[in-house]
Each structure stands twice: as structure tokens, then as C-alpha cells.
Amino acid sequence: MQYLILILGLVMIVKSADVLIDSTSKIAKRYGVSSFVIGITVIAFGTSAPELAVGIVSGITHTNQLALGNIIGSSLSNIALIVGIAAIIMPLRARDSVIRREIPMLIGIQVILIIMLFDNGWLSRINGAILLFGFAGFMFYIIKGSKDSIKIEFDAEGDIDTDADGNQLSQEIVDTAKKQKSIKLWCFSAVSLAGLFIGGRLTVDSSVSIAQSLGLSETLIGLTVVAIATTMPELITSIVAATKKEPDIVLGNCIGSSIFNILLVLGISSVISPIPTDISLWLDVSIMLGLTIFVFIITRVKRIIPRGVGIFLLIAYISYLVYKVNTVL
Predict the structure, then answer these.
(1) What is the mean pLDDT of the chain?
(2) By residue range, what is the domain housing residue 123?
(3) Which H, E and C letters describe 197-237, residue by residue?
(4) What is the pTM of this model?
């Protein structure tokens, strides 16, 4: 029964995140927010919403070792599974800003997290506050760098208005239609948020029960089952982006999501309730940091992530999962 509840919770999380991404993106665009800011904030937040739901609920229920495992596992999944699969579909060319700023920023954040985790055996409330302060700084950096991005205008039906004529409708009709559409979008956003946290509660409760019944730790369940499930939005988004030959979306999504997860999700969860650190996490965070540095070196030297590297990343992730499973059997 707990397995069915876990599946139900994960399905609710993934579907709710999908609806949240769509509705909040359209709301942001209606308020004249630039496409760059929407992509790096709304979509990154949306694809990180499953981890955020798990992090907040596990913090409230004092089971946030699950959240810690989930974030580390999600970061591994982002950099190895998702980038690996996307690079196999289409070699990923990296922009200069990604090579010079975003990936080094992620590496720095991962190093800070590792120091915090093993400094005194806890991710304390003070550590959480520092992470949230870092998140605020990251958001300031993103918004500050969005000045040159292009704003998008939408018509009454919610489609891109390429000629800015409102589909030749009267201003009164356009205003009424936009107002009705906005109310509908806000309702979808509210329902999807509720779905996220209900799904998060089901996922956390069932995961803890399964871990206890099998004699597994919450951290291990978070590193594997929950991490793979909660990265489904990133995986789906990246596969679609790769098939449409949009490498910037793949790398931006994975890097942005990993930064959001560490700074925002772990920040909030540890502020709610300090997270004890399992010493065995040394291996997991070392692999996480090592693969991120590896991707950075490849992009720095080649300016592209070729298919061969994608295959290596995918094999590395599968090998990691096999090792984690074998260590508990």
C-alpha cells in the first residue's frame, strides 16, 4: 500500500509542477516580465518545485534527511543523467556565460554545501539562513543580467502576438479576455501548488514508511527513488529541448535547478528543522562535485559536451545507482 501511495504522491508532484510551470510562465509574461527572467527563474523554480515540496514537508515533519538525500541525488541526476541523455541526443554547445559564470558558481555552491555538511555534523538553521541569503544574491544576479532580454507580448487568447494588433479585437474585448484568462491562470497556479504539497506529504510519509520497513535510511531513499522521481520535470524539459536543438535550455535548466535546490530548498528545509548529516554522504557529495568539475573542464576545453561524454555521464550515473543498491542488499 505504501508503494502505491508513493507512486501517487510522485505523480501528483510531477503533474502539479508541469501545470505550475505553464500557468506561472503565462502570468509572468502578462505582467511584461522578460523572457530571460522567466526562463531562468519561473521555469527553474517550476522544475525545482517537486524538491521544494519534499523539502518543506520533510522539514515540518522532522524527516528532512530525506530532503538532503533528495537534493544531492537530484544534483547528481541533473549533471549526469539529464545532461548525459541530452548530449547523446544532441551534442550540447555551452555559451561563454555558462562556462565562465554559471558552472563555476554551481561548483562554488557545492563546495560551500560540503563544508557546511561536515563542519559539525549538522546543516543548522544558521547554515540554512546563509543558503537563503545566497539564493537572494543569485536572484539579484539573474535579474541584473536580464536588462537586454526581449519582452513578449501576448494576445487575448494567450498566444504570442507577433504583430501587436491584439488579433484585431477592440481594446475592451482584449482587456476583458485577458482579465478572464488571468483569473483562470491564477486558479491553476493555486491548485497546482496545493497538489505539489499534498503530493509532497504523501511522498515523504510513504518514503519514510518504506525505508523503515526495509531497514533503509531516509537519506538513501532520497538519494535514489525520490531524487529520480523529482527530477522528472528537468528530464522531460531537457529531452524536449535537446530534440528541438536548444542546448542553452538544457544546460541552463540543469545548472539553474541544481542551484535552486541547494540554496532555496535546503535553505528553507534546514531553517525549519536542522538536518543531521550522515558521514556516508562523503561518497555521494564527492561524486556530485567531481562530475560537475568534469563537465566544467570539458566545456572549458571543448566548448561543447559531445555524445561520447554524454555516454560516459550516463554510464557513471547508472554505475552509481547500481553501487548504492548493492551496498544495501
Answers:
(1) 76
(2) 2-326
(3) HHHHHHHHHHHHHHHHHHCCCHHHHHHHHHHHHHCHHHHHH
(4) 0.72
